[in-house]
Design goal:
Layout: H1 3-16, E1 29-30, E2 34-36, E3 40-46, E4 54-61, H2 65-73, E5 79-85, H3 90-99, H4 103-115, E6 120-129, H5 133-139, H6 143-148, E7 151-155, H7 173-187, E8 192-197, H8 207-217, E9 223-224, E10 235-241, E11 244-249, H9 254-262, H10 265-270
Parallel strand pairs: 4-5, 4-6, 6-7, 7-8, 8-11
Antiparallel strand pairs: 1-3, 2-3, 3-5, 9-10, 10-11
Helix pairs in contact: 3-5
């Protein structure tokens, strides 16, 4: 896609979003909270007419289910949303998926069962906000799940430790390795990877620093953005190559960080454009 067409596509997306075809019954069913792996919880939301059909499944890590559900309802997708939360920070999300490499498979099976008998997963999108990246980073280490994930969205949600004994701050390579592999495939149009970041500084590698590390590794230029912002988000930079996209936003407060969750439908939608 040419730069002009990319810009027009982004403007259209920012202004009106995407509107895929949908089934007649648009009454979203919000399931009961289910327990997974210790203190983890999952909530499955779906449309009843999707039962027994191949569905597009969106698995999201971290954030109130009510907020995620409200965002999902704006998409007009045929499919289901799974919202997963653990009590604690990124380590609380990483531990269960590190200790049980089949945990995601169990989540997918339970989600399909909740939607209805004989329901299967047609496509898989995984997204995270804030500390949810801990789960994603572990999941990407399992080859079959790395291959199975079609789209990845990190909404102000890609942090890392810092390399030791370096003159400049650099995200720890071992923690960025699989994100880089996924980003490379997305830059070749083989997967979809969307990253957003605020401008918060952190003692560890921030979402800005990790995003820039991927861009540098892939030799992708970061540009000052002329795209319209979506209040209260203020877009300041962007970088696009095929299906790999990085959106940089102003804002250094906790509230600015939370905007990336409360407006996550923007990037969920963009992952399908």
């Amino acid at each position: 896609m040419s730069g002009i067409n990319q810009s027009l596509s982004l403007i259209a997306w920012l202004l009106i979003g995407s509107a895929p075809a949908f089934s007649e019954d648009r009454s979203l069913r919000i399931g009961e909270t289910q327990n997974i792996s210790g203190d983890g919880t999952m909530v499955v939301c779906h449309y009843p007419k999707d039962s027994g059909k191949p569905i597009d499944l969106l698995v999201h890590f971290h954030g109130m289910a009510s907020v995620a559900t409200a965002n999902f309802e704006k998409l007009n997708w045929n499919g289901a949303l799974v919202v997963i939360n653990f009590k604690g920070l990124s380590a609380a999300y990483a531990k269960p998926f590190r200790e049980d490499s089949a945990l995601l498979e169990s989540v997918l099976e339970q989600a399909a069962k909740t939607v209805g008998p004989e329901t299967t997963c047609r496509s898989l999108t995984v997204s995270s906000f804030s500390a949810g990246y801990g789960a994603v980073r572990e999941i990407l280490k399992t080859p079959k799940f790395f291959e199975r994930i079609d789209a990845l969205i990190a909404a102000d949600s890609m942090y890392a430790s810092l390399e030791k004994d370096r003159e400049t701050r650099q995200p720890l390579e071992t923690q960025m390795r699989d994100y880089l592999r996924f980003a490379k495939l997305a830059s070749e149009g083989k997967k979809t990877f969307i990253i957003t970041h605020s401008s918060q500084e952190t003692p560890y590698a921030s979402t800005t620093e990790t995003a820039n590390a991927l861009l540098q590794a892939l030799d992708i230029n970061l540009e000052q953005s002329a795209q319209p912002s979506t209040a209260p988000l203020k877009l300041s930079t962007k970088a696009i190559k095929e299906k790999f996209t990085v959106f940089g936003y102003d804002g250094i407060s906790g509230e600015d960080h939370l905007h990336h969750l409360h407006h996550i439908h923007l990037w969920w939608s963009h992952s399908r454009s």
